[in-house]
Amino acid sequence: MAFNIAIDGPAGAGKSTVAKALAARMGYVYVDTGAMYRAMAYFFLQKEIGKEDESAIIGAVDGADVTIRYENGTQQVFLNGENVTGFLRTEEVGNMASQTSVYPAVRKKLVALQQKLAKTTDVIMDGRDIGTCVLPDAQVKIYLTASTQTRAKRRFDELLAKGEMPDLKQIEADIKERDYRDMHREMSPLMQADDALLVDSSGLSVDEVVARIAAIVDERAGREP
Ligand code: DC
């Protein structure tokens, strides 16, 4: 049976950075499920389907073939055969993903793909519903969070480094809105699974968070650290 590690948490908690580092360290495959929801959102944006138009979304879902492949250990997302990885990390696509991931038709399709991947492969999978819904039997479940202020400041620094002129207050407001939506949707809302361990990354470096989770994984896998 494959060894599965589930990492859930709100936007900006550091899930992907930490999951990538852990996957490299352990030789596991990192599966970024947010990128799959983003690829679907990108598809809806391209088709000019409104985020509130559930019947159009239901009708369009089958026309979006989302697959992932790994190139030099890095996840690449393909939408109907085209590599769209480079188009997915914008605020527009992120917000659309948060808004369209509420629809059962979207979730059903992507959850099936995620479960298929994890069945045969040792994965570290991050998202919002991995420990609660996608991989309820994962051997390790982590709920990674950080204060809203910490997450907003990280995003602010990231955008500054890209040469943009971000507005910290606006970023903080967007994060709060996204958290609210992800935590209050009807289907598979973001929440800590009963058997997930809480890690708060506020005030910790990436290396410290990775070390903390690696120690938990080693203990669960019965390995010496
Ligand atoms: O992790 P991210 O910012 O790339 O995710 C984008 C959106 O996708 C997020 O706001 C909610 C949705 N999502 C989800 O509903 N379930 C997941 N497992 C991953 C992401």
What is shown here, in short?
By secondary structure, this protein is α/β, with parallel strands linked by helices. It contains nine helices and eight strands. 50% of the residues lie in helices and 17% in strands.
What would you say this structure looks like, in words?
The protein has 225 residues and is an alpha/beta fold. The protein folds into 2 domains: 1-28 and 123-225, Rossmann fold, CATH 3.40.50; 32-121, Rossmann fold, CATH 3.40.50. 50% of the residues lie in helices and 17% in strands. It has helices at residues 15-26, 33-46, 54-61, 91-100, 104-120, 130-134, 148-161, 168-184, 206-220, and strands spanning 4-8, 29-32, 66-71, 74-79, 82-83, 123-127, 140-145, 197-200. Strands 2-6-1-7-8 form a 5-stranded parallel β-sheet, sandwiched between helices. A hairpin with a 2-residue loop joins β4 (74-79) and β5. α1 crosses α9 (206-220), α2 crosses α4 and α2 (33-46) runs antiparallel to α5 (104-120). The longest helix has 17 residues, at 104-120. 2'-deoxycytidine-5'-monophosphate (DC) binds next to α2, α4 and α8.
